[in-house]
Write the structure tokens for this entry.
Amino acid sequence: MRRFVARQFLAKLCAFFGSRRAEREMDREMAAHLALIEEDLVRRGASPREARLAARRAYGGLEQARELHRDERSFVWLEQALQDFRHAVRSLIKSPTFAAVALLSLALGIGVNTAVFTLVNGILLKTLPVPDPQRVVQLHGHFPDFESNAFNYPVFRELRRQTAIFAGLVGFSPRGSAILQIGGETRVIAFELVTGGYFRFFGARPALGRLLDEEDDRVEGAHPVCVLSFQAWQRYFAGDPKVLGRRIDIGAVPLEVVGVARPDFTGAELQQRYDVWAPTAMLREWSNRRENASYIWLKILGRLQPGVSFTEASARLAGASRGIEDALPKDRANANPVYQLRDASRGADTWRTDLHDPLVILMGAVSLVLLVACANLANLLLARTSERQREFAIKLSLGISRWRLLRQLLMETFALALAGGGLALLLSVALTRGLLDLFNTGRASGLWVAPDATVLLFTFSGCVLTALLAGLYPAWQAARTDASPALKGASFGERRRGLVRRALILVQVALATVLLFGASLFAHSLRQLKTVNLGFDIDHMLTVEIGATRNVKPAVSPPALGEVLARVRQLPGVESAALSDPGPLTGGMMGGGFEISDKSGRLHDTHNHTLFAGPGYFSTLHMPILRGRDIAASDRHGAPNVALVNRQLAAELAPFVGDPIGAHIPEAWGVEDVEIVGIVGDSHYQRIREKTPATLYLAFDQVPVWGATLEVRWRGALAPVEREIRRIVRAAAPGYQVSRAASMELLRDADIKQDRLLAFLSSLFGALGTALALVGIYGLIAYSVARRTREIGVRMSVGAQAGDVLWMFLRESLLLVALGVALGLPIALMLARFLGKLLFEVQTSDPSGIAATLLVIALGGLAASYIPGRRATGIDPVRALRQE
Amino acid sequence: MPSEERERLQVLQGTLDLIVLRTLATMGPQHAYAIATRLERVSEDLLHLNQGTLYPALVRLEQQGRIKGKWGKTESHREAKYYGITPAGRKALEAETGRWRRMAGLVEKLLVEES
């Protein structure tokens, strides 16, 4: 028997999905049937017309027969589900307040989940849109001292010979922002150099013209062509098809547009968007010769040969490292790496490693928010169940089955969840956009993600899960309604529902505690990062990067830059200004060390960073000169070469040279015989989180430079100062341009973007979770006040004071809050241990965080119960007693 | 009450299934019209049914795998769907027949005792 049922179910399912075919089959059979009757009747002597009518009569109502056929063929319950859905929507419209509160908490709960999942999906989950993305790998070089995912071009050429390992190999090099000039107008765009096979590697097709191929990348300097992204084509050329063959200038290098990529082309990095691609053969127009083996610039992706496993390929490549090395020029930087493979099925790693931990934590946080929202909804539904006892009793006594009632109520929750999910999607789009803005301030190319089908599926699953999680128990409770007492007004299961509702509040408070404590840790960590002593003063500091627009040779103390500095110092809003290369907090500094001889003449290597600092640099940045002298205006080309060291480098030099002041460095960065003339304080120069680096400061005016960074301490308003500086650079420095101007605060914020993201979002989610929990408390107390009106009336008529009544409710909520915190805090402290890695100088058991969490929850709980409790004190005993 | 009506229909449906199976078991593969005609003839026109109502039973039985439909041609070369009983159908027919006999016997006995 069971076998038949299962079989029938499958058949019905097939019929439901293949209903068009089944419908045709049915019509065909009906027509055949009618024809047979007619034939029979005609044979017995009826006229064709009579026969047709008689056949219809014998067959019965056609539409009715069809309907019967359909009922039998497919699912009645599906029909019923649609009915229930309509019923649910009507029922929700009838109680708009309930629907609005429920909808809002769902929209928020699901919305933040969708937003964070959009990031998780875009950064951690999405794979490259190529067949078999698992076979795509990224090359890494394991050097004695460090790891690198960038290589020089000769390495790429050698690796490409390893055809036993790689079916394809492409190189790419993001060039950051570049100036695009179209007919005199300039725009800042994101620009990338790629090897010839790049587009084919990803199976890309052009939207217009052609894409780059191997021929475009063969001879150095011979292929001044480029491909535009679809977005750039739309934005800068208004989608004009005549763009093909047009000459555009990128960083003052003329290139011919040969094609436009399709809108969905992403390339090696899924979270990155570029506007223009040019062949690597053109590299030398902007910086170095491509063959320069000391220039490390190219990232490499490969596709493994079919049949070669990842492990096998890694082993073969490690084995080939030696041979590759032998084929390369000997005298170059970063020699002797062991080549390694990393999985790149999700594209080259730009953000994944950085954002993996924060995103996992945030996903955890939003799941908690969703749980709080579910508890809220369940609570609302339980209260509604109590109010609707009579309605359920009537339905049950009219013969609706309990199962159907359960389904109807679940459908109500599902309808709510679905509507909430719709709102959530809108909310998440706005939230995601906000988050990306937070991330991408001041960059031409930044983090880029967008929702896709996976995100939609996630949201929908979230809705279903929420509906089940929040709706199942209340619906089950309702379906158990005992009809006759409920009809008489007695409430069935009220006691149990009350207990469950309190338990739910407890859970909400516990979850809110966890969220709040986590948020307090990240907020505290961010505060520490913002107040940590960097060694210089970033307040009221502007940095302006000035770069050469033409392919100029580096020059010592270019007069144009000197002229710019002199004019900027004259500006009314400028307190002081100086030149350096590179600028602070740009994330980069020149690496490498120098050799220095001790008193016995033995040479020692140092490991330090180097920076070129002009006169006034240290005073502008408020960096203390501890001993010796500052770099002076007289330290120019031709004068004896001088340098300062920071305290850290001085300490590292002390074992060899004793007091570093007066010591001579034979050669550093091409400058010979440099005398150390002073010691300055330590500073975190590239990143806040770095260990204090040993730093050598060479005199800016004694070393050849391509460009410089102008450091300006301003007062008053920033905007006019920046505008004036840009004007000065245009007027006084032909061949140079401002490539970036940013306040140091902005640079600092960019450096701690991960921490800002965490602090901002965890606070948002903490606030949201807490607000939802407080709404829960409010709802519970308000409901309790409404139910106990009569009791309060009695109490007051026998002499209870307003304060006693208020206390009755405050006590209840405080008890719940206390229990919730007692449950939540240990969990919070336990979970916090996983956050340690991401915190900056904050303990995971941060006492101030605990205190803040307790305070917020306790005050919130009091406020949430005070409002309805206060209303209870206004109850008129006489009227309350007359009720019912 | 609609539910009562449905129950009566279900009894009828159960019987209808049995009759259809029986017809196909004795006569071999038949099209719906032939089944309907035979039902009317055997019941000596006492059981008069709209022939369209035969289809839910056919669909149900086919979905349960008790009969199998196949398009074919009549003697007059018209197309029609022929239903044949399957081995599973024969087994079900046997079981249902037994059940029906027991049920009919019980009802008969009750009716006799009542009067």
Q: What stands out?
A: Chain B is about 65% helix and 15% strand. Confidence is low (pLDDT under 50) at residues 1-11 of chain B.
